[in-house]
Amino acid sequence: PNPRTKELLSSLVKHLHAFVRETRLTEREFQEAIGTINAIGQKTKPSHNEAMLIAGALGVSNLVCLINNAQPTQANNLGPFYPAGAPHCAEGASLLRSPTPGPRLSFKGWVVDRNNKPVAGAEVDVWHSSPVGLYENQDPTQAEMNLRGKFTTLADGSFSFTSVKPAGYPVPVDGPNGALLGAQKRHNMRPAHLHFIIYKPGFKTIASQVYDPQDPHLETDSQFGVTQALIGDYRQQPDGSYKLEFRFVIEPGEARLPRAPITEKAKALS
């Protein structure tokens, strides 16, 4: 009875059957495909989302983002490592909740509308990997919610924090995602980046990522996330630390926080 659901299911069946006819899918290939779909579900658990990983590796996550936002946009993939419930932080606070060696990073951002007017009172979730390429919920040695926090933009639309400079990292390849990348002869690296979610009633909620222009995998991101509008200007300081400033543009629309792909922390390194 829902018109949109009917449209989606009708199109899915049409294209799925067309794919089977075009490729003349064999019975063995069909059984292997069913096995892969089952393996995605079996690999997914509260601390790991294989389906989200596969969607990124196939370019679907970023395609959905690009067709649903006016271009150029700061919107980007949510990614598989976002958990809800990051603690609220004071302006300029540190994201470090456990000792995390690495170059220090000072970040200042601004949230503005399409007319370049500041958006005050927006909630900004921030998270990123450590300098060894692990998110807090992948790494039992990091404190709960390390390198994560939530900020509120000031009257001029700004927010700021300190942290460590994130590193690029390999996405997990011990499941169907690894089989996919291996079959395509692709590496499993992601370029270094910071994650953001920007939420304010009256504006469309966006997830975003800001990438390091010096990362060697910028052009070959295994999750197809990098766009020109998301490359930041990391400026190294005389003491070896870094400064980064970035401006996010949001537009009117639905304010809706995404469902977190994961809900628990990994018990041990895998």
Give the number of DSSP strands. Answer: 10
Summing up helix and strand content along with how strands pair, one would put the structural category as alpha+beta
Q: Which overall shape is indicated by the principal axes computed on the Cα atoms? A: globular
β-strand amount: 15-25%
Order of helices and strands: HHHHEEEEEHEEEEE
Please name the defining characteristics of this protein:
270 residues, four-stranded mixed β-sheet, alpha+beta, 23% helix
Secondary structure blueprint with pairings:
Blueprint: H1 3-23, H2 27-43, H3 50-57, H4 60-67, E1 104-112, E2 123-128, E3 148-152, E4 158-164, E5 169-170, H5 176-183, E6 189-190, E7 193-199, E8 206-211, E9 235-236, E10 242-249
Structure description:
With 270 residues, the chain is an alpha+beta fold. The protein contains five helices and ten strands. Strands 4-1-10-9 form a four-stranded mixed β-sheet, with no helix packed on it. A four-stranded antiparallel β-sheet has the order 3-2-7-8, with no helix packed on it. A hairpin with a 5-residue loop joins β9 (235-236) and β10. α3 (50-57) runs parallel beside α5. The longest helix is centred in the first third of the chain and has 21 residues, at 3-23. The radius of gyration is 20 Å and the shape is globular. The mean pLDDT is 95.
